[in-house]
Amino acid sequence: MLIQVHKSKIHRARVTEANLNYVGSITIDEALIEAANMYEGERVQIVNNNNGERIETYIIRGERNSGVICLNGAAARKAEVGDVVIIISYGFMTPEESKEFKSIAVFPDENNQLT
Question: Quick one: which of 63, 80, 65 has its CA closest to 20?
């Protein structure tokens, strides 16, 4: 049996853009993706601390050290520029693996930069 476990998160990032006229997804600064052990194309959950919205989409790699957090397509309706979000990824593993697994949390500053 496999269970789904919290793998990593980018905690309290700020939305820098919302692009309704894009196909979909969330664009994330490449440095944040790597620090959080996330992958381009990976499914993520986005929790908006400002309005309580929760959505799922997939990651597009943004320019390294740009601080970009951009909700694209329909997701752009779920947040405004400046909103604080948590971006969460999950992984599948056996219960035994989950006992040893250590999730990663990344805490960017107010400009979505690693400190």
Answer: 80
